UniProtKB/TrEMBL annotation:
<keyword id="KW-0106">Calcium</keyword>
<keyword id="KW-0449">Lipoprotein</keyword>
<comment type="function">
    <text>May mediate accelerated ATP-independent bidirectional transbilayer migration of phospholipids upon binding calcium ions that results in a loss of phospholipid asymmetry in the plasma membrane.</text>
</comment>
<keyword id="KW-0564">Palmitate</keyword>
<dbReference type="InterPro" id="IPR025659">
    <property type="entry name" value="Tubby-like_C"/>
</dbReference>
<comment type="similarity">
    <text>Belongs to the phospholipid scramblase family.</text>
</comment>
<dbReference type="GO" id="GO:0017128">
    <property type="term" value="F:phospholipid scramblase activity"/>
</dbReference>
<dbReference type="Pfam" id="PF03803">
    <property type="entry name" value="Scramblase"/>
</dbReference>
<protein>
    <recommendedName>
        <fullName>Phospholipid scramblase</fullName>
    </recommendedName>
</protein>
<dbReference type="InterPro" id="IPR005552">
    <property type="entry name" value="Scramblase"/>
</dbReference>
<dbReference type="GO" id="GO:0005886">
    <property type="term" value="C:plasma membrane"/>
</dbReference>
Length: 248
């Protein structure tokens, strides 16, 4: 894994990477200072050539960008070939999110669970740590027969926000939105949007681009958890992703 992170670090030096602030902010985990300054992010998957051409499942890699298109973090999935090929989107994973200095700022972990909307015991969840070893929150799937729904919880497993996807995963538009709601579901405060990445990519790979919008003053630890929520949505609702309307 250290070799993979070193390679990522070398690539980051060559990328249009925004210089992250180094000063500490009270109550903010080290390395997350930049998140206090943003209210939206784009998570863009990097497509491996072999996966795009033949559909061979490989470890996912992502760039996390700001609204100006500058790379602020880089994310790489840690997994083994057996899990990738046998479990596909259901596989357990650990995603390491690193800064422009090659330091790991956020760790996202999902255990292996069966996927079934009919059995509450099979619901998905993931844990977000920042820095690694310090839990800042969880994303937990709620049971619902027709719509993907998730709870965003803090480090004490106390619900903070909710995420609701489209009914039955149906969408006649190239983008798919997941609304971020207050815990009482009265107010919409943001959204996670799955953005169309092109016909050939959608057919031959699981490449995805996701945008996150949240309040500027949202707790920076919950912002980190929302980044983790994107990765759970990518893996948890492949049927939704493949039902988007393709167009060129």
């Amino acid at each position: 894994m250290h070799t993979t992170l070193n390679k990522c670090h070398s690539r980051l030096i060559k990328m249009n990477m925004y210089s992250l602030p180094s000063q500490g902010i009270p109550g903010c985990p080290p390395g997350l200072e930049y998140l206090t300054q943003v209210d939206q992010l784009l998570i863009k998957q990097k497509v491996e050539l072999v996966e795009a051409l033949v559909g061979f499942e490989s470890n996912n890699k992502y760039e996390v960008r700001n609204s100006m298109g500058q790379n602020v973090f880089y994310a790489v999935e840690e997994n083994d070939c057996l899990n990738r090929q046998c479990c596909g989107p259901l596989r357990p994973f650990t995603i390491h999110i690193i800064d422009n200095f090659g330091q790991e700022m956020i760790t996202v972990s999902r255990p292996l669970k069966c996927m079934s909307c009919c059995f509450p015991g099979c619901l998905q969840e993931l844990e977000v740590q920042s820095p690694p070893g310090n839990t800042v929150g969880y994303v937990i799937q709620q049971w619902h027969p027709f719509s993907p729904k998730f709870i965003v919880a803090n480090e004490h497993m106390e619900p903070v926000l909710k995420i609701h996807g489209p009914f039955c995963g149906w969408s006649f538009l190239p983008d798919v939105d997941f609304d971020i709601l207050t815990i009482d579901e009265v107010s919409k405060i943001g959204k996670i949007s799955k953005q169309w990445s092109g016909l050939m990519r959608e057919i031959f790979s699981d490449s995805d681009n996701f945008g996150i919008q949240f309040p500027m003053d949202l707790d920076v630890r919950i912002k980190a958890v929302m980044i983790g929520a994107c990765f759970l949505i990518v893996s948890e609702v492949p049927s939704l992703i493949t039902h988007v309307h393709y167009q060129i």
